[in-house]
From TrEMBL, chain A:
Name of the protein in question: F-box domain containing protein
Superkingdom to which the source organism belongs: Eukaryota
TrEMBL record, chain B:
Superkingdom classification of source: Eukaryota
The protein's name: SKP1-like protein
Species classification: Eukaryota, Viridiplantae, Streptophyta, Embryophyta, Tracheophyta
């Protein structure tokens, strides 16, 4: 085999000569290997290496493309992870041309960042090129987006997002959060998705993180089943309008999002199965009206600051409901709002609420088979609850039909043994006539520092003492069992 | 007394091999089961390559026999030592193949033809490791691949993907 280096720096003549030599003297080994084996070899290589292979020759470009056509590809283009590996391959400074280690330290950081960005751009471009005709199973694109961008990087991102919405992709995740979930002020402006008339044909799952999303930029999502928005600002759209563009939409999840005031209001039926709205706001208010008609809804999660108009209509399929309201003051307006929300969800088999909701919940006349009260979020609950709750349980003398006829199982999580909790349990045991099971899960012993054996002993004593007290409470239901763990 | 079979290479060299060793090849195992393997078994593999194939099979066979004879006592330490031995053997084996690519690719074809999945995947991994971290020009040289991009195309690629070509 010839050993002359045929690098591009040498004269053309030598290079051509060496090419000729290769042609005549040596065997192109890989040419003799069946394509199935070549594909197997390619399957052992990461995408970066596949890109290198596609640069070897026309034939290899073809092989790499055929390979990608055959295997459903998963592309993780992550600017937070990738440049490191690319830089390791080639530690040359992209600006001054010297080896990275010879730049001085102040330059170094900048140059390194610049070099990393440049390589990432080239890598993403090439990845899109190689995949231009094939179906991508899962594309995750995470960019270090910055609003005040001097180098035209935003335009580059725009072009990738354009490609992402026009290529055949089944699952698409666009993340501009730089891996953080933090206060908007810390992150600056979210990335603005480009305008267009996108109509992704096979897209089934769309996950957006930290961007501005204008559903009017999209014509139609023919196959979209699941949409998950995190830290996304939604403009000019309601949930119903979004759903009308997605005929097979099933799951909607909104977390730390900002949407228009009317977003959660609609007269039309929305045929989704799960809806989860967590810590969202409108552009003007920390909470929003909810008035939806969802005949197929099975799971509903609402975590928010307080309640305004809250109605879920036609939810006859509903199974699981989770409601957590952070409001510190409980008043009758909030009570009415929660009541109206829960009446709409009265078909639910399981309702999980935080302590704030429990007082309200007792007024809720449910026909459901099994109602699970889950006292969660214990650690987040401010002390301010105490003043009302102390006397609350003792003063409740009215009849509660849900308690008397429906409540079968109660789970109390993160039980700490406070007077409020004891009173609430006492109250429930006294009232619930068909109760079968009460499960009390104590705050884990792990939360007690291990080195203080005295404290631990105290804790064990307390646990024993509390259990005794709980077991001695009078029970309305003879069948009721109490399990403390 | 172990049953022996005679394998005939494409250049008419005869290799006497124990049945257990050669049965690792699904292709030959089938021939034996079908009763087609009477006398010499002719194979479309050169003697040089067939010697390598048998070297691999014997090493694998050796390993499984030893494991069967072990009792539990001291097995773990022994296994660890054995793993080291095998690794050492495999390293030597791959170094020889890297140095002689004719044999490497013949062996790749032979492992496919003889249906030796363990050898095939070992060799594929070896080729993948040889390619990993290399520049396109290095890979071309390693496997004698002709660069059929026109100078213009190459210039465009170099401009577009300069990062891949830098040493």
């Amino acid at each position: 085999m010839e050993s002359t280096s045929s690098s591009r720096n040498e004269g053309k003549n030598i290079e051509q000569q060496s090419r000729k030599q290769q042609k005549t003297n040596a065997i192109d080994y890989l040419n003799y290997i069946p394509e199935a084996i070549v594909f197997h070899i390619l399957s052992l290589l990461p995408l970066e290496e596949l890109i290198i292979m596609s640069l070897i020759s026309k034939e290899w470009k073809g092989i790499a493309m055929r390979y990608l056509l055959m295997v459903p590809s998963t592309l993780n283009l992550n600017e937070l992870e990738m440049p490191g590996t690319i830089l390791r391959r080639n530690p040359q400074c992209a600006i001054c041309g010297k080896s990275i280690s010879s730049c001085n330290s102040s330059q170094r950081q900048n140059h390194l960042m610049y070099a990393a960005r440049k390589k990432f751009i080239e890598f993403v471009d090439r990845s899109f090129q190689l995949h231009s005709n094939c179906i991508i199973k899962n594309l995750q694109l995470s960019c270090r987006y910055k609003a005040n961008d001097k180098y035209g990087y935003t335009r580059k991102i725009d072009s990738w997002v354009n490609l992402a919405f026009t290529n055949d992709i089944k699952m698409l995740s666009l993340d501009f959060s730089r891996g953080k979930l933090s206060e908007p002020s810390e992150l600056g402006q979210p990335y603005k998705l480009p305008h267009g008339c996108f109509a992704p044909k096979i897209l089934e799952t769309l996950i957006l993180n930290f961007c501005k999303f204008r559903p009017s930029s999209f014509q139609f999502f023919a196959s979209l089943q699941r949409i998950s928005l995190v830290q996304v600002e939604v403009f000019d759209c309601t949930l119903a309008e979004l759903a009308s563009k997605c005929p097979v939409l099933e799951d909607v999840s909104l977390e730390n999002c900002v949407f228009p005031d009317e977003f959660m209001m609609s007269g039309e039926n929305i045929m989704i199965k799960t809806l989860s709205v967590i810590n969202c706001e409108t552009h003007e208010w920390p909470m929003y009206d909810i008035d939806l008609s969802t005949p197929c809804l099975q799971m509903f999660t609402l975590i928010g600051n307080y309640l305004l108009t809250s109605r879920i209509r036609n939810a006859t399929e509903i199974r699981d409901v989770v409601i957590g309201i952070k409001e510190i003051h409980a008043n009758h307006i909030q009570g009415d709002a929660l009541g109206s929300l829960l009446i709409g969800l009265s078909h639910a088999r399981s309702v999980t609420v935080n302590p704030w909701c429990i007082q309200m919940l007792l007024n809720f006349a449910s026909t459901s088979y099994k109602l699970t009260l889950q006292q969660e979020f214990q650690e987040d609950v401010p002390e301010i609850f105490d003043f009302e709750e102390q006397i609350y349980w003792d003063t409740q003398n009215s009849t509660f039909s849900c308690l008397e006829n429906s409540l079968r199982k109660v789970t109390i999580d993160r039980f700490s043994g406070s007077i409020n909790e004891m009173k609430m349990i006492q109250f429930l045991l006294k009232k619930a006539r068909v109760l079968q099971e009460m499960e009390v899960i104590a705050i884990s012993t792990n939360s007690i520092p291990e080195d203080t054996s005295q404290q631990q002993e105290k804790y064990l004593w307390f646990q024993h003492h509390t259990s005794q007290t709980l077991w001695n409470y009078p029970r309305a239901s003879a069948k009721a069992t109490i399990a403390i763990c | 007394m172990a049953i022996m079979y005679a394998l005939k290479s494409s250049d008419n060299e005869i290799f006497e091999v124990e049945q257990k060793v050669i049965e690792q090849s699904e292709t030959i195992k089938k021939m034996i089961e079908d009763g087609a393997a009477t006398g010499e078994i002719p194979l479309q593999v050169s003697s040089k390559t067939l010697a390598k194939v048998l070297e691999w099979c014997k090493q694998r066979q050796h390993k499984t026999v030893e494991n069967e004879n072990d009792d539990n006592k001291g097995k773990r330490k022994k296994e660890r030592d054995e793993d080291d031995d095998i690794k050492e053997w495999e390293n030597k084996f791959s170094d020889e193949l890297k140095a002689d690519k004719d044999v490497l690719f013949d062996l790749l074809l032979a492992s496919n033809y003889l249906d030796l999945p363990a050898l095939l995947s070992f060799l594929c991994q070896l080729v993948a490791d040889m390619v990993a971290g290399k520049m396109p020009e290095e890979i071309r040289r390693m496997f004698n691949i002709e660069n059929d991009f026109t100078p213009e195309e190459e210039k465009a690629i170099t401009a577009e993907h300069g990062w891949a070509f830098q040493p």
